[in-house]
Design a protein that fits this description.
heterodimer; A: 380 residues; mainly alpha; two-stranded antiparallel sheet; 2 strands; 76% helix; globular; B: 450 residues; alpha/beta; ten-stranded mixed sheet; 16% strand
């Protein structure tokens, strides 16, 4: 080989050739099917063109989604380890899940973050959207500012910055909280109340996960936090999930955009009618705005739930250097990753992913069933 | 006609998009600022063939801006000059935080670097998946072999009777204390017993506004380092494994070591609500944020720095309740191995020979703050008082950090159970029982127990 980089070029060229050939085969097959069904020449050409253009995506879907899915389903019934023969184990991987305390721990972590974090994320998005839908000067600037976290994304670089900002001793988040508390005493009380409530909830949850409640007893016996207490964001198992939830709230920009669109779609005359009837701002929101944006809330709920249950990047990057607190923030997908790629238990990892799929589908199904009770699709 | 046009359009668009992605990025040109260092004679004969081979090297222990640039700017040009068939040597800089995952990826897929920087304990896990280097670096093949400290070759880099790597650096780990801070806390010497350390952790720690201003002792993490735990077990005379190969973490030595770590943590952090030390870019001993540190010379000031005049060293502590207890110092040895999947074993072995020369071992270890594993490279900085002291500790108390089986799983188990105990989510008996049960299961699952 004359040039080592040629290998990459060969692979790229082969990929392109593969896409072209499979696209032509797809188009030709579609034309053939139309032909034997007696379609006209024009219909045959249309079928050929349609499938030719769709083929690159379809082929990609087959190679990168469908075939891996089918393979992982097969693997989930096998013991699969690299460089070793695949051994059929039936339902063992799935049954093992129920006896795996670490899996339960991670699964409960994901549920906790979803149940607490998702409503807060949706709430923050709605509040921001309500604020940003006001007709004020410079509002576009604020919209850009609040959407910026989505543009930045919760990628590794951003998460590493958050890691620095969350330092409990001299991180900027802590410094701001301390500074505000010194300037404005009620804020300090509010901060301590937040610390107390957070630690009580987290300690109770950790106790529930482990079956031992000494950490809760410690929090209770320590009493209301002293004035100099700070949140121990990435340092304590009582705070790791809270840190992740704050990151979720920070990145609520996409939900906010949907709500902004929803608010623009609420007919102005309904507000005017409500005002004529003497409704105040809260009544207008609760009786007019909220019902009419429930389809968007429903969408945010479903999409947000799926995204949060699949949380991986955030706990991985934030806690990879502090592994001793990492387990308290370990999501179920992080656990899947560890089993699959660190412990080489590919079959078990596949079983976790399929179990997760079933759980997500089940919760989604329930939400679809329940939507009739609260989602308002028309103005009647 | 329309169909043909469509086909042409699709082909052209696909080709254009493919070309845009397939364009190779030009490798950045690197110039060697320093002259090429003396190197060993290559095993493979230089060829006149055009440069076509790219060697990939993954390094985890390096000092940013020092040893990494030396490798890239000095070693690589020298190696390329010796091997015209090599077009480039590319480095991947790893971190310990993701090390196990990355290594698993390399070996699972059979694709990865030609040379990997391993820690001491990894010979047990990966030894059999590495190329046999006996024909290249063995006693009969390489005259320099005789210069290496025998235990570094036989102990850490040999598996199944075959040489699997080149010893790269030796870093003994000791407790280092700033005597000014200790004296300010009313102590006159570096603690050497469990009781002394708990006293030190309490008296030398300064907490203000519920946050640490000065720590009595800093160990990786929050006084919950799994490697220190293993060292403490060994220091009490305990063993990690029973004769049948099962886990022995419920031994009384193991329990005493973990209990000591818990008590020491409580002495430093009266409650789990105390905020850790602020982040630092320097080192804890010279910036005054710690009275003592458990560590090696990595990331510390040069051995000639005056800061060391005020620092005293000590091995791992002992406990009078254990008759077999003795002071030890954990000796970490990095080594470089060539995975069996590499297609360039001979070339990679030549690269190791070059790195393994006395001058190159000296330069890298000096930059890193460790000891070269070959005797004729111990000069200059190893003659300083500090390095002599560290060398003495290594001589007297050194225990190689090796024979730790199924490392990736053990680390995960310890990093889960130890903090669960330290943060009162579990009691001591539960924690060690969990470690024992899970580790034995892992050893069985992964074929360590037949």
């Amino acid at each position: 080989m004359a040039n080592p980089y040629l290998n990459t070029v060969y692979w790229a060229a082969a990929t392109v050739l593969f896409i072209i050939i499979t696209s032509l085969i797809s188009g030709a097959s579609a034309r053939f099917v139309v032909k034997i069904r007696g379609g006209t020449k024009k219909l045959q050409e249309r079928a050929f063109a349609g499938y030719l253009f769709a083929a690159p995506w379809v082929v990609g879907f087959l190679i990168f989604v469908l075939i891996p899915m089918v393979l992982s389903l097969y693997w989930s019934f096998n013991k699969v380890e690299p460089l070793k023969p695949v051994i059929w184990v039936g339902l063992k991987n799935y049954l093992d899940l129920f006896g795996d305390s670490d899996f339960k721990y991670a699964f409960l972590n994901s549920l906790f973050i979803t149940v607490i974090g998702l409503p807060l994320q949706i709430g923050a998005a709605l509040i921001l959207a309500l604020l940003l839908s006001q007709k004020l000067r410079g509002m576009r600037l604020f919209r850009v500012a609040f959407y910026m976290p989505v543009v930045l994304g919760l990628n590794s670089a951003v998460l590493l910055c958050w890691g620095l900002m969350f330092n409990a001793n001299n991180g900027i988040v802590t410094q701001i909280i301390q500074g505000l508390g010194q300037i404005f005493v009620p804020f300090n009380w509010l901060d301590r109340l937040f610390i107390y409530i957070n630690e009580l909830i987290s300690a109770a949850f950790l106790g529930f996960q482990s079956g031992r409640y000494k950490i809760l007893q410690n929090v209770i016996s320590a009493g209301f936090p002293a004035a100099d207490r700070v949140p121990l964001w990435l340092q304590s198992p009582l705070w790791t999930k809270t840190s992740l939830i704050i990151l979720l709230i920070w990145s609520c920009g996409t939900m906010m955009i949907f709500y902004l669109a929803a608010l623009n779609n609420v007919p102005q005359e309904i507000y005017e009618a409500a005002e004529v009837d003497g409704a105040n701002a809260w009544q207008r929101f609760w009786n007019v705005t909220w019902p009419l944006i429930t389809p968007y809330t429903f969408y945010n709920l479903i999409v947000g739930m799926i995204a949060i249950i699949q949380l991986f990047n955030e706990p991985y990057v934030l806690f990879y250097n502090t592994p001793t607190v990492a387990q308290s923030a370990q999501s179920v997908v992080y656990y899947l990753y560890i089993n699959t790629f660190r412990f080489n238990r590919m079959g078990y990892g596949s079983a976790i992913s399929w179990f997760l799929l079933i759980v997500i589908m089940f919760i989604t199904l329930i939400q679809f069933r329940l939507q009739n009770r609260w989602v308002q699709y028309d103005l009647r | 006609m329309r169909t043909k046009l469509l086909v042409m359009l699709v082909l052209v668009s696909v080709l254009f998009s493919a070309c845009a992605q397939a364009t190779p990025t030009a490798a950045p040109a690197t110039q060697a600022p320093a002259p090429a260092v003396p190197t060993a004679a290559p095993t493979t004969a230089p060829t006149t063939a055009p440069a076509s081979v790219v060697l990939n090297v993954a390094v985890v222990d390096y000092v940013k801006g020092t040893t990494d640039t030396w490798l890239e700017n000095t070693i690589v040009p020298a190696f390329k000059a010796q091997h015209p068939e090599v077009s480039d040597v590319q480095f991947t800089w790893l971190t310990w935080g993701t090390y196990n995952d990355v290594l698993a990826g390399y070996f699972n897929t059979g694709t990865g670097p030609d040379i990997i920087n391993f820690g001491s304990e990894y010979i047990a896990q990966y030894g059999s998946q590495l190329a046999d280097l006996t024909p290249y670096l063995g006693k009969d093949a390489w005259p320099d072999y005789a210069q290496y400290i025998p235990s570094t070759m036989a102990g850490v880099t040999t598996a199944d009777g075959k040489l699997r790597g080149l010893p790269w650096l030796i870093a003994p780990r000791a407790y280092m204390c700033n005597m000014t801070e200790l004296q300010a806390a009313g102590l006159t010497s570096v603690p050497t017993t469990y009781a002394d350390w708990i006293k030190e952790a309490k008296s030398a720690t300064i907490i203000k506004n519920n946050a640490l201003q000065q720590a009595g002792l800093v160990v990786t993490g929050k006084l919950d380092d799994w490697q220190e735990y293993i060292g403490l077990i060994w220091g009490l005379g305990g063993q990690l494994y029973n004769p049948d190969g099962t886990s022995n973490f419920s031994s009384k030595e193991s329990q005493a070591a973990l209990k000591f770590m818990y008590d020491r943590r409580r002495a430093e952090y009266p409650s789990e609500t105390v905020a850790d030390l602020p982040q630092t870019n320097g080192n804890r001993l010279s910036d005054g944020s710690a009275a003592c540190v458990l560590g090696n010379m990595w990331g510390f000031p040069a051995a000639t720095d005056p800061v060391w005049n005020n620092i005293q060293l000590a091995p791992y502590p002992t406990d009078a309740d254990f008759p077999n207890s003795k002071p030890i110092s954990m000796v970490f040895q990095d080594w470089l191995g060539i995975p069996a999947y590499s297609k360039n074993v001979a070339l990679a072995a030549d690269f190791l020979k070059m790195l393994g020369s006395a001058d190159n071992q000296f330069t890298y270890n000096k930059g890193f703050g460790s000891f070269p594993p070959r005797k004729d490279a111990w000069h200059d900085y190893t003659d300083t008082t500090l390095m002599k002291n560290i060398g003495n500790i290594m001589d007297q108390y050194g225990v190689a950090f090796s024979d730790v089986r199924d490392t990736a799983k053990l680390v995960t188990i310890l990093q889960k159970e130890m903090p669960a105990y330290f943060t009162d989510q579990e009691d001591l008996a539960t924690a060690v029982a969990n470690i024992d049960q899970q580790y034995t299961q892992a050893l069985k699952d992964d074929g360590w127990i037949k």
